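Friendly challenge for the regulars: who can give me the structure tokens for this chain first? No prize, just bragging rights.
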Amino acid sequence: MDPDGAWTGIFVDAFSTVCNVDKAGSNPPGSARDLLDPRWKGKIVSTYSNDDDAVLYLCKTIGPGVDRAPRPVPGPICACQQASMGGRRPRGGM
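First reply, four minutes later:
Bragging rights claimed.
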């Protein structure tokens, strides 16, 4: 314990795009905006968007995806597969 009571709590959170480069080919997505390319439709896995505000924020910040699918919930804003936490198959197959 700090005898002066002077301390700071730090929390760091980051967004990242991860892909299997063996399956993504010679031009993998380099940013979240790249995921709006139609060639990735049906090949993206994300948490269900109402389950995590961060996913809604990410989809909103990449821009045009919101215009293409303006419904906020239910269903994803991005053209994403929905990962299931319970071991069931995600919506949209996989």
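Residues 33-94 form one domain. The two ends are 50 Å apart (CA to CA). Your move, everyone else.
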